Amino acid sequence: MADLITVDDPDDPRLRDYTGLTDVELRRRREPAEGLFIAEGEKVIRRARQAGYEMRSMLLSAKWVDVMRDVIEDVPAPVYAVSPDLAERVTGYHVHRGALASMQRKPLPEAEQLLQGARRVVIMESVNDHTNIGAIFRSAAALGMDAVLLSPDCADPLYRRSVKVSMGAVFSVPYARLETWPRGLEAVRHTGFKILALTPDEKATSIDDAAPHRIERVALMLGAEGDGLSAQALMAADEWVRIPMAHGVDSLNVGAAAAVAFYAVTAGRPQG
User: tRNA/rRNA methyltransferase SpoU type domain location, by residue (predicted)?
Assistant: First the structure.
């Protein structure tokens, strides 16, 4: 059972995992280096634990202690009870959901290992908006994608904003980071995947005509908001595909486009 510890000093060193959560650059450096990430909200904390992540500590406002009582009783990590004002002073923002947990990261698998049992994979190039990362993971989980591969410069899926937007779906879809780009795509192709590049370019094949749901092993590649896929990534793809647009709209937000494309990739596939 965890110790419930009341803290009234925002500079208490035991709260270090939670300091400056709105300082993106600080957290980008600290969290991977120290092997931690922050789960926010009751559902996300529970999903992180269900996915096998070890809890380092939990930070709760008083009214959430009873809600999280079963978790408190089940984990050995310390639980810090604080006022909403103190939580805001520590984290840098008003913690609406009243519950934060510092979780221990797991080692990432190698891309080749992840691909062995997969048939439907999403590859992200240079997606650095944490909201988009979270939205893409949520759609990937909901629509039955098997795995996610990230280019070396993609944002961290376990950054607090990504985890929150995904509602914990980042814990449901296994992911790996390619060490080189775009050369790392060769490992995907050698594993038997056809690489489809999602682009609004008029030279691309309609995703309906490409019929990706009939292809045995498909890797769908997405680029960053605005810029889209790089020329190098497009050259490395086996085929370009696009989502047909109407009413003069030229493209969708990458999160929305991902959801549409994932459905096209997985349609008719038995869900497990």
Answer: 121-263
173-220 pLDDT tens trace = 999 999 999 999 999 999 999 999 999 999 999 999 999 999 999 999
Collect all residues with Cβ–Cβ distance below 8 Å to 228 and sequence separation of at least 6: 199, 200
DSSP 104-152: E--PPPPHHHHHTT-SEEEEESS---HHHHHHHHHHHHHTT--EEEE-T
Q: How is residue 155 annotated by DSSP?
A: P
Which pTM does this prediction carry?
A: 0.93
Q: Are strands 55-61 and 218-222 parallel, antiparallel or unpaired?
A: unpaired
- What CA–CA distance (Å, rounded) separates 185 from 188? 5
Whether omega before 244 lies within 30 degrees of 0, making that bond cis, reads no
Concatenate the DSSP letters of all residues of 178-200 into one string: -SSTTTTHHHHHHTTPEEEEE--
- By the 8 A CB rule, do 143 and 199 touch? no
pLDDT per position as a tens digit, 227-240: 899 999 999 999 99
Alpha carbon 216 to its chain's center: 25
Cα of 267 vs its chain's centroid, Å = 22
How is the chain split among helix, strand and coil, in percent rounded to 5? 40, 20, 40
* pLDDT tens digits for range 71-100: 999 999 999 999 999 999 999 999 877 899
- Determine the Cα–Cα distance for residues 222 and 193; give it in Å rounded to an integer: 15
Helix (H, G, I), strand (E, B) or coil at 77: coil
Strand runs labelled E in the chain: 4-6, 36-40, 55-61, 79-82, 99-104, 120-124, 147-150, 175-177, 194-198, 205-206, 218-222, 239-242
β-pairing, 120-124 vs 147-150, is parallel
